[in-house]
Amino acid sequence: MVVNIDDDFNFLVRKISKSSGIILAGYRDSYLRRRIDLRMKAVGADNYTTYTGLLEKNQTEMKEIINALTVNVTEFMRDKTPFMFFREEILPDIMERKKKSKSNLVRFWSAACSNGEEPYSIGICSKDVLPEDWSISIYATDIDEKCLKHASQGIYSKDQIKNLDSSLIRKYFEPAGEGFKIKSIQKLLIRFQKHDLTSEPPISKHFDAVFCRNVMIYFNENQKIKMLNDFYNSLSDDGYLIIGKSETLPGEIRGLFTPVSAKEKVFKKV
Length: 270
Ligand SMILES: C[S@@+](CC[C@H](N)C(=O)[O-])C[C@H]1O[C@@H](n2cnc3c(N)ncnc32)[C@H](O)[C@@H]1O
Known about the structure:
Blueprint: H1 5-20, H2 29-43, H3 48-57, H4 59-69, H5 81-100, E1 105-111, H6 117-129, E2 135-142, H7 145-153, E3 155-156, H8 166-172, E4 173-176, E5 179-182, H9 184-189, E6 190-194, E7 207-212, H10 221-234, E8 235-243, E9 257-261, E10 266-269
Parallel strand pairs: 1-2, 1-7, 2-6, 7-8
Antiparallel strand pairs: 3-5, 4-5, 8-10, 9-10
The structure holds S-adenosylmethionine.
């Protein structure tokens, strides 16, 4: 009998998709294979069929593989310089525009926010730069409910906040056991919500900036184009799009966004 490894692999991916509700069909094949192979090694399964059988019996392993496929590595002000650019260039520009239109409400979307470090970083920068009486609203979405729960609790280790100056830590955190807890004022700014960027419509409109960092790398071209079109429609005129340092915009949608900083991967809606 000839064993078709690709069929076994596709069957396994469909099984994980069905159980998790995550549409994995569009994720890059090489990415899925790398992550699944690592889990298989960890549990001693030497082929896709054995691993599928294991997943059928073992809910804990099913959770492990879902976690492994939706990696949520992140930290406060990840990469630091894009957030410096946000404070020093983007926020002052948004402020000027708002003053002209006599508004004091700013709206941001942290798309694929993982455990909340990114939306809290956006909140901290905005609170620090914008006048006190301005309203800040941040939507923070992710496909992973476990991440969203962690995010809404707002408790982090010392390592996760290592990029923050000590003055910001004093201002926006309080000690909690071995780690730090975000003060309630920051939590009030942020609405956490489950959302799949590849299959659902955008959550809202008129954002002044959308942060979507370090998730596009997992998507295929069609998923990227769908998501970036959604961001285009969700942004207000001249709104900003901030993507991950190692990410690029597909050629098809370049006409929708113009680069503001190639180094920091910041774009503006055309
Ligand atoms: C590496 S983290 C990025 C976190 C943060 N944006 C950053 O740059 O530090 C990737 C996140 O994307 C989320 N994710 C993966 N696929 C997704 C999808 N289809 N829709 C929404 N979020 C997704 C994962 O759950 C994970 O939390």
